[in-house]
Structures are given as C-alpha cells and as structure tokens.
Amino acid sequence: MEQMKKEVQEVWNIDKDMTLDGLVIGEKGSIKVPEGKRLYMTVNGICTAPAPGVYEGKVQLRIVEPVCHTYSRVAGETPIELKAALYIKDGKPQESNSAFSFNTRQNTEICVDGGRIVSEETDSNGIVVENGSCEIRDLYCNLESFGVDGLGKGAGILTLGDAKVLVKDSTILTKGGARTAVAAFEDSEMTFENCRLHADGPELTAEERERAAADGHPCTPPWQIGLRGSAHVTTLDERGKMNFYNCSVSTRNWGVISVDDDASGVRVYGKDSDFTVTGNHGYGCFGINCDVEDGYQEKEEYGAYHRYDHCRFHVSTCLMYMSLGKTGAEFLDHTVIRSKRWGLCAFRSSGGFLRIAEGSDMQTGKACFSVKGSAVRIEVDHATVKSDTGTILQVIDNDDPGYLSDHYAVPQGEDHFLKGRDLTTASVTEDVFVKISNTELSGDFYNATTNLLAETLPDPQDVEEVPPNFVHVRGVRGKDLQGPKNLEVCLENARIQGKISSAKAVYHRELQRIDVANCEEMGNVTCMAQATVNNGVILHLDHHSVWEVTGDSYLTALTLEKSSVIYAGERKKARMTVDGIPTEIRPGTYKGQILITVK
Q: How many CB atoms within 10 Å of residue 467?
C-alpha cells in the first residue's frame, strides 16, 4: 500500500485502501469514497472518525461495503446500516465488509483466533455475525463513544438471524452511553466461556444527553424504574439467547443482563459466573415481554427467562427487575446474591415467576422481594433469604407512573373496602403467591396494597396517549392490575419467624412526589402491620411447618394442617380472634378478619 503524509483542506476523493504516515484534515477538509461505499480510518490501530484534526503515526484508510440489516421489529422494511471491524456471514468472514484484518480460518468454524479491536468511533461494532455458526477465541475488544443499544449498534459482538457463536477466553469492554458489550437479536445465540465483559457507562454531560435525546436513542434508563446510569452489558431481544460459563460480567451502573421489550423467547443461562454492578445504581438481570395480544397472561410459554447455577451476584439496586408480561428466573445450585437494596423488584408483571433454591443464599439491604402492581409467583426452596430491614416481602401499590409521566404523586387518604371483594381466595392472573419450602427464615411478609392508586387511573380501553399495541397491556396506564392484591403464602416443611400480615406502606420522610430528581425513592417504603381493608392475606401451613409469630398479624384466611404449629416463642402466647371472636388455634380452615396477637 502507498505510504505518505497527507494534508486535506478540501474534499479528497479516494477509491482504494491507503496507509499514511500522518494525516491532517482541515476545518473544510473531508474524505470522500465512491457512492455506496463506507470509509474506516484507524490511527495507530484505533478506529477513529475522520473528523478535522491532526493524526500522527500510522493512519490506515479502508473502503468497505456497508453491512445492512432489516430489523422488522424496529424499522419495518427499512435496513439499518452497521459498521463492523469484522463481519461474519454464514460462518465465514466477509473481507469486503470488514475494516480490520484478523487471524482468521476460512475452512473451520474457528473464524477468529486472536485479534484486537480498539475503536473510538460512534456506533461502530466490533464483530457482527449474521447466520451460521462460528467460534471466536482470544479476542480483545475495547470500544468507546456512543452506541444504540436497542439496535446493537456499538456492541463488541452483535449476533443476528440464526447465528450461533461460541466465544472463548476473550475480553470485551465498552465505554459510552447506550453502548452494550454484546447483543443477541432474532434467533441468534451466544455462548461465552472464560470471558470478561464490562460496560462502563460514564456519567453523561448535558450536551451528551441532549445529543442522545435529539437522536431518539436515550442513553439512560427510564427514571420511572428508579435507576441511573448510561449503559448495560447485554441486550437481548426477540428470541436471542446467551450462555455464560466461568465468566465475569459487570457494569458500572444501569444493568448487567438486560432484555429489550420484544423478548418473546429470550433465554439466559449462567454457570459458575460473576455478575457485578460496581457503581451505586444497577440490577443483575431484567425480564420483560411486551407480547400484548389477547390472553397473553395465560400463555404457557415465558417471554424472557433466566437461569443461574452456582453464580455470584453483587448488585446495587436489585437482583432482578421483572416487568411487563410473563417472565421468570431461577437462582439455583448455591448461587450467592448480595444486593444493597432489593432482591426482586416486580412492576406491571403478569405471570412472573421467581425461584430461589438448591442452597442459594440471598441477602439484601431492603426487602428481599418488592412486588408492585403485579401478579407473580415466588418460590423459596432450601435456600437462605435475609434482609437487613427484616422485611422478606412487601406487596405495595405500583409507583411506576409510566414512561409518559413526569412524576408520581403518592396517593393520599384512607382506603375503603370495595363492596363484593373476596379477601379469602387468590387469582393467578391478579394476585401474588409465595411458597416457602424446606427453609427456615426470619423476617416479615406484608401486603400493603390499596385501591387509592387505581381510583385515579382510567380504564385500559380509555387510554389513548400510548402506542396502540400498548393499550391493552395490563396496567400500563389504566387501572387493570394496579388495584389491591390478595397475597397467598404457603409454608411446606418450613419455619418462619416474623409477621405475616396486611399492612400499610409509608414512604420515608412522608414523601409525596417522586420524579427524576429523587427516583431512588421508588419502592422505598416502610410497612407496618394493619387491619385488612382490601389487601387480603391467605396463609397455609402444612403439617411439617411452624410459624413463630413476632407481632400482631392480620389475615383473611388461614389453613392449618394437622401437626402444623403457630406459637409466639418463649414465655409468650399466640392468640387468635376471627371476626373479633376469640378462637383456639388448632388444625382447620378459618376465614374472615383474623388477628393473631402475641401476649
């Protein structure tokens, strides 16, 4: 290739690859390539946008064919252009579309065996893989500047179509707003073995936030979920899958394993891996499924589903956010969970499922499970679950006002009984179910839901200010699913020390408004046992279970099997009234206003 120094003060037309010993682009200078082609510029091996400036050292100019892909879920029939350091299609590297040269193998599934990608160019990808199978080994990828996470633009590795990619012994680092380390869309699947992935989302300047808003690609999480940050490690959508074996996966803020809206079949599996949030705001994993046709709540198939075996989570805000639709997660085989705030935070979830089992150990700073405006099932089986506040479960009104709202006003006043409401049974499409099996734990279970929020909301069919496909989503803007809940707690060979009760939730410092300035206050409540209004609590103890009551507890239905035990600890006695009538605590089923007191 030709080598020289070059100064560009006007339009410079080139039609072939070039290597320069230095380059100066003046304020009015630019480099133009043939129509339909794209230019990649690397300076001393770092991909850089060819903007006005002085570039010293080895400058390489490469002309490539653009990579275009049609994202039907996002842009209809309009192809989206991607810039790739390496483009692999149908299992084979495509030199004409790739900016970098790699130690590639053409006649084997090992497409990359060693290589380095460093880029400071906005939206540029490291490796894009479309269809076919391939293996990537010993890759070092370090990308900076902005990306577009919802499209996978700027990701270190992006997989599309039915691509199946195995990544071994590699490091993938990104730094920039909405720039994910890896992204899997459509029917693609990535498997990582012995890899390190990190997304370092920096704090954005006002100018950077304005730029992101103008481009229509937000670089921060919606404040309505109570988070801050500018990047997450992964993006999965549609039926994308990711597997992590002996990996380290981390982010500064926002989220580690992130899933986008159309997660109709996303699957994530982790084994012997670490998932870490290093900053003050962020979750371990996310579940959502915006599949909103009629009857989606009754579907057997989950949208996004996570499973982690013998992994370690260290997070700042919560282990898992569980949002719209039917999603789920399992944390098994002695997985260790440490969260400075919550474990689960479920909001607007219909059919969500969470399981902590097989010797796993969860410790949280606040409630282990915070459920807001959701119908979910939670199972704890042979596991340790602890909270610094002593609250295992809080079921509260949903304080997520929807992404179109600029604030949440805490409802005022007292709740009033809804005539005809049944407080003695729970519905799988409306209410919250918790099963504790083969476990001993100490902490409280509270149902503090009311009808105060639902009274202020329109019916779903009257909602017009959201996209049409969202109108029927339960609780997006209407009252459906956002009213009071019944909570059913079942103990199977379990021992619980604490209160299980209807309750009242109070925000700290008597807060009345939550917005972007104080979004961390979302869900930050204290629950206190209180007589039931619309928030029924249904409790079932099997014949091997024990409940040690530590304070007044209000129930609406109680089933005690033979040999189950309710007691109040040493030198105290548990007493029960049903509709105000003193009643002996003995095997049987009781319904009404039930009060268990400790004397």
A: 7
Band of the pLDDT at 108, cuts 50, 70, 90?
low
Residues in the chain: 599
Cβ proximity of 167 and 143 under 8 Å: no
According to DSSP, residue 463 is labeled -
DSSP secondary structure code for residue 452 in this structure: T
62: buried, middle or exposed (CB in 10 Å: 19+, 13-18, 0-12)? buried
Q: Which residue has the tokens 């496909």?
A: 469
Q: Which CA distances in Å does 579 have to 20, 423, 595?
A: 88, 13, 8
Q: What is each CA distance from 112 to 86, 115, 354, 355, in whole angstroms?
A: 9, 7, 38, 38
List the alpha helices (DSSP H) in 337-420: none
- Token pair 């199978």 is found at 133
Q: Which residues pair with 498 in a beta bridge?
A: 549
DSSP state of 150: G
Under 8 Å between Cβ of 325 and 293: no
Strands 565-567 and 553-560: what pairing?
Answer: unpaired
Structure tokens at 526: 């204290």
Using CB atoms within 10 Å of the CB of residue 466, give its burial: 0 to 12 exposed, 13 to 18 middle, 19+ buried.
middle
Cβ proximity of 390 and 367 under 8 Å: no
The first and second tokens of residue 348, run together, are: 């607007």
Round to whole Å and give the CA distance between 337 and 311. 8
Residue entry with tokens 């390496």: 86
pLDDT recorded at residue 508: 85
- Which residues are 579's β-sheet partners? none
CB 132 within 8 A of CB 88: yes
| 207-221, 379-393, 437-451: range with lowest mean pLDDT | 207-221
Per-residue pLDDT of 433-490, as tens digits, reads 999 999 999 999 999 999 999 988 877 667 666 655 454 555 565 667 889 999 999 9
User: What span, in angstroms and rounded, lies between the C-alpha atoms of 174 and 199?
Assistant: 5
**Which tokens go with 234?**
């992964």
According to DSSP H, which parts of 11-124 are helical?
72-75
Task: Choose among 406, 372, 367, 408: nearest CA to 386.
Answer: 367
Cα–Cα distance measured from residue 144 to residue 48, given in angstroms and rounded to the nearest whole number: 10
Q: Which residues make Cβ contacts (< 8 Å) with residue 72, sequence separation at least 6?
A: none
User: CA 555, CA 572: separation in Å to the nearest integer?
Assistant: 20
Name the pairing type of β-strands 574-578 and 581-583: antiparallel
Would you say 203 and 195 are in contact if contact means Cβ atoms under 8 Å apart?
A: no
Strands (E), 237-301: 241-245, 248-251, 254-259, 267-271, 274-277, 282-287
Query: Looking at this protein, which amino acid is placed at residue 268?
Result: V
**Distance separating the N- and C-terminal Cα atoms of the chain:** 90
341, 328, 396: which is closest to 367 by C-alpha? 341
Backbone angles phi, psi at 286, to 5 degrees: -135, 140
Q: What is the pLDDT at residue 298?
A: 58
Q: Determine how many CB atoms are found less than 10 A away from the CB of residue 214.
A: 8
Q: How many CA atoms lie within 13 A of 525 on its CB side?
A: 27
User: In this structure, are residues 236 and 268 in contact, taking their beta carbons and an 8 Å threshold?
Assistant: yes
Which residue bears the tokens 């990537």? 136
